[in-house]
Structures are given as structure tokens and as C-alpha cells.
Design a protein that fits this description.
With 423 residues, this protein is an alpha/beta fold. Helices cover 39% and strands 15% of the residues. It is globular, with a radius of gyration of 22 Å. Its main location: membrane. GO terms for molecular function: CDP-glycerol glycerophosphotransferase activity. Keywords: Cell membrane, Membrane, Teichoic acid biosynthesis, Transferase.
């Protein structure tokens, strides 16, 4: 182990006992990196035809960065552009190199920092690293990664995150909000929430929020029957089974000292399948913050771990029903108009101690259940009685206002106009 790696591991160990030490180390490191990055920007002119992409800290090729990238490849107006993708594991994404105008960089490498220093356009879905500040000649597009039910950033009201204080979270989000040029919005509701969560009024940056829709959700309007068939074959899901997609979110009070969050299967699988019988397959997808979870391998064939499927859209379109709790997957899945169940076994604790909500959960277009038995009965009932009713339509209108399958096109048009509208 290198000296730097040893130091990082020691700091991780101290962090739970002395979080102030870790914060001091991080601030000092960020200050150094900020100065180094600013020097790179000064010494390297902006490449007007270069776009850099990253999704979920370089873990994945998915979400709106993927949709925008693939849209650029199809759009002749971008034929003379070049593209860089950042990944933690570049080898796992070498298929992107089949396009001669695309190259890959290792996240946090020198090449990574150079890519952001030179690229005209940054496409990101989790906020760029704190030390990176776009120059006046660069365009930073923050696609974000979901409409929130739970409070985010400057709107958090509880001291529930052991990694940082509420005030530190607010300060961090205000800095994030001040540097973005465009924040892509899927709805009128989101316009207001994201303005507040990123402190955009304080920074005078409210105009950064643009009504494009989420590029990633275009696929939900344009997928084919062949897509369905191929995905089910790849995941070995029998055609005669009903498919349930379970997408629980993460919880701040389940942070692990070694990093990441734990997740526990709060569904009694024995009870669930006793009631449902053999007609169902449950797909389990952990949140990207989750590093460990405990569903049992003996359920192979009936419970399938799909956390490794990079693009959650593939799971949406093959699923007959969504089971979630407080996850933003509910809003994306709503574009399909299919049944949803909200398994909120810890509703009171989550609402009153961990996060708090932006709206009353009674607006959700499906039953709220708290036990496995209630969940199973709701599944059986919705299978027989579900209709896309007025409540679901109100939900869709409020939370997916701008979604129509053309969000990527609107985003590409926006980028060609540039910040001054004259590019």
C-alpha cells in the first residue's frame, strides 16, 4: 500500500471518532486541487468542439449524460465534435471507443482534470468535484439524477447525516448552484424545488433552471418490443412471469465506517412469495450509495439482483409494477403510466427524523404499505384493478410536466445556442 493510500485508510478509520479531522483534511486537499485546476485552465485554451461526460462519479454509462452523448452522435450538427467520458473503470466501457471521436479517461487522473480544463461543455449528473470551477468560456450542464420527494441540499431540516453537518451541506449546495450554467428540469414542481435546494436565489442564478425534461427519460417514450424481448432474455426472466421492480433508496443512519451505506431487505420474502405464489419475479436494484446489502442467494430465480444493470430504464420497461419507498424512481416510472406501490415501512422516522418531504405522500398514485403482508395484498389487487386514473394524471402533470420524449433534442438545441444565445 502506498503512503497516500495508507494515510487515506487511517483517516477513514479516524473519521467516525473524529469527523472534524476528516473535514479538515478534505478542505486542505480541495484548496490545493482548486489552485492546480485553475492553473490548468489558464494554461490551456478551451476547445470549442470538446464535450466531457460523467455519470454517478464515473461509476456508470447511463442517465442523462448517456442520452445527451448518444443524441450528439446522431445529430449532424455535432459531427465535428469530440467526446470524453470519465470512468472509475475505463476497461469496462471500452465499447465506447468504437466511435473514433470518443475517448475515455480514468476518473481523478491528470487526464481527467485536463479534460475538464479544456472542454467547452461539461455534462454531469452528480455535481462536479468541488475544486472544479468552469471558466466564463465553458458551459456546465448539471442534469442531476432525479426529482426529489425527500428534501435535498439547502432544504434539509435535520442533522441526520453523520458525514457532515446540516450547515456544511447547505454551504456545499450553494457553491454547487452558483457554478452551474444549466440545470435541466422535468417539471414546474422541480423548477421550484431545485432552485431552493441549490440556493439559486442567493447566488442570483435562478435562470440556470431550464424546462427541457430529463433526456434520460426519452427512452421511456421510444423503446421497442425488441428492446423488451432482448432485455428479458439477457436477464433470464421467463415470459410467463409478472415482473416486480423494487428500488429502495438509501438512509443516512445506515452509513458504514468503511464507506458507503448498508441496505437490508425489509421484505419478508418467505411471506411475500407464500401469498403471491409462483407467478412473480422480483428485481432488486440497490441505490448507487449502497455498498452492501443482504438479500439471500437461495431466492435465485425468484429474486434477481439487477443492481449491476447500468441503465435503470431497461428495468423500467420490462417491469409490470414498481415497488419503491422515497426514491426518485417513482417519477421516472410514472412516465410509463404503470402501477406503483410505496413500501414505506419506516415512514414516520424517515419523514420526521431523517429527511422530511417536499409534498404530502398522499399525492402518490398508488397505495402506501408498511408490512410484507400489506405489500403482497396490494400487488394482487393492483394486478386486477389498476387504472390510470385522475390521481395518476395529476401526479404526472405536476412532476413530469415537460416530459414528452424530446428532452434530448431540446438540450442539444440549447447547447448550440450557447450561454449568450448566439453560438
Amino acid at each position: 500500500m502506498s503512503g497516500n493510500s495508507w494515510a487515506r485508510e487511517k483517516l477513514k478509520g479516524f473519521s467516525t471518532k473524529c469527523p472534524g479531522l476528516l473535514r479538515f483534511y478534505r478542505r486542505s486537499r480541495e484548496d490545493v486541487k482548486r489552485k492546480q485546476f485553475a492553473t490548468l485552465q489558464r494554461e490551456n485554451p478551451v476547445d470549442e468542439k470538446l464535450v466531457v461526460f460523467e455519470s454517478f462519479w464515473g461509476k456508470s454509462y447511463n442517465c442523462s449524460p448517456k442520452a445527451i452523448y448518444e443524441g450528439m452522435l446522431r445529430d449532424k450538427r455535432y459531427d465535428d465534435y469530440h467526446f470524453i467520458w470519465s470512468f472509475q473503470d475505463t476497461q469496462a466501457h471500452r465499447q465506447l471507443l468504437e466511435n473514433p471521436r470518443t475517448r475515455l479517461v480514468q476518473r481523478n487522473s491528470k487526464e481527467y482534470e485536463m479534460a475538464f480544463a479544456k472542454a467547452k461543455i461539461w455534462i454531469y449528473n452528480m455535481s462536479v468535484p468541488e475544486y472544479m470551477e468552469p471558466s466564463k468560456n465553458q458551459i456546465y450542464v448539471e442534469t442531476w439524477h432525479g426529482t426529489p420527494l425527500k428534501r435535498v441540499g439547502c432544504d434539509i431540516i435535520y442533522e441526520s447525516d453523520c458525514r457532515r453537518s446540516r450547515q456544511e451541506t447547505i454551504a456545499a449546495f450553494e457553491k454547487k448552484g452558483a457554478k452551474v450554467d444549466y440545470l435541466l428540469s422535468p417539471s414546474v414542481f422541480y423548477d421550484e424545488v431545485i432552485t431552493s435546494a441549490f440556493g439559486l436565489k442567493k447566488s442570483g442564478n435562478e435562470a440556470a433552471v431550464v424546462p427541457t425534461g430529463y433526456p434520460r427519460n426519452d427512452y421511456l417514450y421510444h423503446y421497442s418490443l425488441d428492446d423488451l424481448r432482448q432485455i428479458k432474455e439477457r436477464l433470464e426472466i421467463p415470459e410467463n412471469k409478472k415482473t416486480l421492480l423494487y428500488t429502495p433508496t438509501w438512509r443516512e443512519n445506515q452509513y458504514q465506517s468503511q464507506g458507503g451505506f448498508a441496505s437490508h431487505m425489509e421484505i419478508d420474502l418467505n411471506e411475500l412469495f407464500r401469498i403471491l405464489g409462483n407467478d412473480y419475479v422480483l428485481l432488486y436494484r440497490a441505490h448507487h450509495h449502497i455498498s452492501t446489502y443482504d438479500w439471500k442467494q437461495e431466492w435465485e430465480g425468484r429474486v434477481i439482483d439487477v443492481t449491476g444493470v447500468e441503465d435503470v430504464n431497461e428495468l423500467y420497461i420490462i417491469s409490470d409494477m414498481l415497488i419503491t419507498d422515497y426514491s426518485s424512481t417513482m417519477f421516472d416510472y410514472g412516465n410509463l403510466g404503470r402501477p406503483m406501490i410505496f413500501y414505506m415501512y419506516d415512514l414516520e422516522e424517515y419523514r420526521e427524523k431523517l429527511r422530511g418531504f417536499y409534498f404530502d405522500v398522499e399525492e402518490l398514485p398508488g397505495p402506501i404499505v408498511k408490512t410484507t403482508q400489506e405489500l403482497a395484498q396490494a400487488i394482487l389487487k393492483l394486478r386486477e384493478t389498476f387504472v390510470y386514473d385522475e390521481k395518476y394524471q395529476r401526479f404526472q402533470k405536476k412532476f413530469n410536466t415537460y416530459e414528452d420524449g424530446d428532452a434530448t433534442q431540446r438540450t442539444l438545441d440549447l447547447l448550440l445556442r450557447g450561454k449568450d444565445g448566439n453560438q
